Please model this.
Amino acid sequence: MVKDIDNCSAEQAQQRLNSLIKPQGSLGRLETIAIWLAGIKGNPVPQIGKKVVLIMAADHGVAREGITAFPPQAGNLMIKNFLHQGAAVNVLANYNKTRFVLVDVGLSGEAVSHPDLFVRRIRAGTRNICREEAMTRREAIAALELGIEIINKEIDAGATIVAIGELGIGNTAVSSAILACLSGRDIREITGRGTGLDDCALTRKQQVIAQALEVNRPNLIDPVDILSRVGGLEIGALTGVIVGSAARSIPVVLDGFVSSIAAWLACRMNPQCRSYLLASHLSEEPGHRIVLEELKLEPLLDFGLRIGEGTGAVLVFPLIESAVKIINEMATMDEVGIKLLN
Ligand SMILES: Cc1cc2ncn([C@H]3O[C@H](COP(=O)(O)O)[C@@H](O)[C@H]3O)c2cc1C
Ligand SMILES: O=C(O)c1cccnc1
Model:
């Protein structure tokens, strides 16, 4: 069950913003962020509290088909890099005082043992979707449930806002395959270069996605079927994180294309999730704009990011914190004694 947002608190936040010492609406998106958070928190002067970035990592069988710029082994190496604080998202999370949570939901190769890594493999990578289904329906449900379990633990430990991110070599292809199912759009329109493909490899990626859809024929009205046939374990887990967050009235900051695909799946499962989402930025992946338009989410930044990992989501925490400061700390027109002319 997902609660409706508290329109009364959102309305009071709007009134308070209008009473502050500034021309009405002049703080633009800072105002809409404050109103969004007020509605979720049921408090016209909300606080941000404890920030968490949650990264789900998994491998994809389809990464062997020449559809990514990096070898499949890059996934495991990146996990070690995360644990050494060397990834882009580590730098941003440390700078923004954000707790970093990393979960191996389905990497292949030797599992890394580290106190900061949750190893919860549902399977050792998905199967190659251009030959067979990515995973069983049971595994897809396990990924969703794992996401719900992890976010519940984090909320129980005090998390009050969550940024989501992923690592999965080949997962932009998988996200485009899911998007083709959800949107019915032409594959050429929604397939991008991911980590950096040339024209020839991009064409190959489009062919592989077309083949995956042809071989698997997902049931387009069933998000779990789409996830299990052409999806990924990290995407399933992130979908669970979103559903679980919304169920506990915790706001979710989306990252790029891949995390937004998880958001669309979550909204297909429960449309009320939508109110709890904030789109941090517009990725260079062409499918991202289509997802955000469908979800009626306006990205805060258009920064040319195309990395994933949760980077864009963590990057906007200072904007959200600024919005919270504004609504809590600015003086009002009355306090200063300034009035509108008429
Ligand atoms: C070194 C490295 C760091 C990354 N950080 C995020 N991704 C991102 O790129 C991958 C998706 O792009 P594609 O579909 O083209 O493989 C995912 O792992 C995503 O998290 C990375 C990828 C690599 C190689
Ligand atoms: O927008 C994304 O999520 C993205 C883009 C490129 C590579 N990995 C992720």
